[in-house]
């Protein structure tokens, strides 16, 4: 059983976003990190870059797989978790906490309505 | 067509393994963590189910002649219980597959068991029998791939692990590439001091139906094909179908860095082409490299020179679990093959700096 916190929303491609406050956090789900296995490399945009909902924003690689990352929402990157560059295993150890990827200032909070609720995402992973 | 399954498929599934297709077989790729399995082999001992490997037995009065003419190494050098690494090449000297050839002990005549890679059993059976018939040789060729399960027990503690299950055999007396029949947990097995990880270890062939008895008697961390790949990559060992392939990556033993298995003073298919290349030298050669920038080199990525001009291709790559550094293997023109030569690897279109490192990558 994979952890799917109730306080965020999800994409079918296994990214999550928080939904409260001026800056929201983005990352990948517990299911995603388990599917990937040992994560060894993360490529993320820089602070100030723009994300477009549904578009690729980076890459995560495990020993066995390369996976594109898709933006849950549009917005401006306000912070990047640079710890992931030296310690990509944080994505395996704590995907919803220390393994966060970006902080983003949302361009249009109505986009949250298009994302999967925790219940909907749970159904998809079962 | 369905995938072939190893005898312990259900045992692996119950242990939580995830599976991958390899050479037409559905094999465990990972139990819990490729990295943890890799470390187990480097620091203690791991066990791999490699029952997907092919096995063919060749016997009869002309067994030696047939083996000699279809492999590049010299099988006449094999004493009973010895084995040798070898290549199977076509008329042009291009590697079709690599293999280990064993000479079985305790037989009146010379009998060979050789181990091609996964999915090559039918092809090799056809090759051996059709050449046998063309040359009118008296030899029996049997595809015994699904008679034998095969486990690789690898790591600094492999000797203890296998010895615990084989009280009667003096396995420590086996030198590298020697093998013997031994009783493992009451089952007669073929135990060879060989492997594909760079560590000490054994490969154990046991009757297909006794696989579970033998597997459970060998105390070691279960490992999948994921860590088998990272372990061999750190050593620079070739992977058939990837680092060479008659269709997609046609390479001779000299290009692939295994010229030591070519014995030109023997008669074999492809010998003349290889003699010619041996005299003329190769244009391209197999190298290792370490990435200096962040990224992971992977099969099929281009290799470029310092000016960005494409000069070769990555055939294998990974993040080395031992070094925590990205490493890879591939082919470049010989003038780029010296250690420390600066090259770059194109990772999703971006140039990542790299330097040539002659494998093994670890000590």
From TrEMBL, chain A:
Binds 1 lipoyl cofactor covalently. Residues 23-105 form the Lipoyl-binding domain. InterPro entries: 2-oxoA_DH_lipoyl-BS, Biotin_lipoyl, GCV_H, GCV_H/Fam206, GCV_H_sub, Single_hybrid_motif. GO terms for biological process: glycine decarboxylation via glycine cleavage system; protein lipoylation. One of its GO terms (cellular component) is cytoplasm. The keyword Ligase does not apply. The modification N6-lipoyllysine is found at residue 64. Keywords: Lipoyl. The keyword Metal-binding does not apply. Its cofactor is (R)-lipoate. HAMAP family: GcvH. The glycine cleavage system is composed of four proteins: P, T, L and H. The glycine cleavage system catalyzes the degradation of glycine. The H protein shuttles the methylamine group of glycine from the P protein to the T protein. Belongs to the GcvH family. This is Probable glycine cleavage system H protein. The lineage of its organism: Archaea, Methanobacteriati, Methanobacteriota, Stenosarchaea group, Halobacteria.
Automatic annotation (TrEMBL), chain B:
Residues 8-265 form the GCVT N-terminal domain. GO terms for biological process: glycine decarboxylation via glycine cleavage system; methylation. SUPFAM superfamilies: Aminomethyltransferase beta-barrel domain, Folate-binding domain. It catalyses: N(6)-[(R)-S(8)-aminomethyldihydrolipoyl]-L-lysyl-[protein] + (6S)-5,6,7,8-tetrahydrofolate = N(6)-[(R)-dihydrolipoyl]-L-lysyl-[protein] + (6R)-5,10-methylene-5,6,7,8-tetrahydrofolate + NH4(+). GO terms for cellular component: glycine cleavage complex. The glycine cleavage system is composed of four proteins: P, T, L and H. This is Probable aminomethyltransferase.
């Amino acid at each position: 059983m994979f952890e799917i916190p109730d306080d965020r929303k999800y994409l079918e491609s296994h990214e999550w976003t928080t939904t409260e406050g001026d800056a929201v956090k983005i990352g990948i789900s517990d299911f995603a990190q388990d599917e990937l296995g040992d994560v060894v490399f993360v490529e993320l945009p820089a602070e100030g870059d723009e994300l477009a909902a549904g578009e690729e924003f980076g890459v995560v690689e495990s020993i066995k797989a390369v996976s594109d990352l898709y933006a849950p929402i549009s917005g401006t990157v306000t912070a990047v978790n640079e710890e992931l560059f030296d310690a990509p295993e944080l994505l395996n150890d704590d995907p919803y906490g220390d393994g966060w990827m970006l902080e983003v200032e949302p361009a249009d909070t109505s986009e949250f309505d298009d994302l999967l609720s925790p219940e909907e995402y749970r159904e998809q992973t079962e | 067509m369905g995938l072939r399954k190893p005898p312990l498929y259900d045992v692996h599934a119950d242990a939580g393994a995830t599976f991958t297709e390899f050479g037409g077989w559905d094999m465990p790729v990972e139990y819990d963590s490729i990295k943890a399995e890799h470390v187990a082999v480097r620091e203690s001992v791991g066990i791999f189910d490699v029952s997907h490997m092919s096995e063919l037995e060749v016997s009869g009065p002309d067994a030696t002649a047939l083996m000699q003419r279809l492999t590049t190494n010299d099988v006449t050098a094999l004493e009973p219980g010895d084995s040798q690494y070898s290549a199977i090449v076509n008329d042009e000297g291009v590697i079709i597959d690599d293999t280990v050839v064993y000479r079985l002990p305790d037989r009146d005549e010379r009998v060979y068991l050789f181990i091609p890679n996964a999915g090559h059993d039918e092809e090799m059976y056809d090759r051996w029998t059709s050449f046998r018939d063309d040359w009118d040789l008296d030899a029996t060729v049997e595809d015994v791939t699904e008679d034998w399960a095969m486990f690789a027990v690898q790591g600094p503690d492999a000797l203890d692990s296998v010895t615990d299950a084989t009280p009667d055999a003096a396995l420590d007396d086996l030198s590298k590439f020697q093998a013997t029949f031994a009783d493992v947990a009451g089952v007669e097995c073929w135990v060879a001091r060989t492997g594909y990880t760079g560590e000490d270890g054994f490969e154990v062939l046991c009757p297909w139906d006794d696989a579970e008895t033998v597997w459970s008697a060998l105390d070691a961390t279960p490992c999948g094909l994921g860590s088998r790949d990272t372990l061999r990559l750190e050593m620079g060992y070739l992977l058939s179908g990837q680092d060479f392939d008659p269709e997609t990556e046609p390479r001779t033993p000299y290009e692939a860095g295994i010229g030591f298995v070519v014995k030109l003073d023997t008669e074999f298919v492809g010998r003349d082409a290889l003699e010619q290349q041996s005299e003329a030298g190769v244009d391209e050669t197999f190298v290792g490299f370490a990435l200096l920038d962040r990224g992971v080199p992977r099969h099929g990525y281009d290799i470029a020179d310092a000016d960005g001009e494409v000069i070769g291709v990555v055939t294998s790559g990974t993040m080395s679990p031992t070094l925590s550094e990205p490493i890879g293997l591939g082919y470049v023109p010989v003038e780029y093959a010296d250690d420390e030569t600066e090259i770059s690897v194109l990772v999703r279109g971006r140039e990542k700096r790299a330097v040539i490192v002659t494998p093994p990558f670890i000590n």
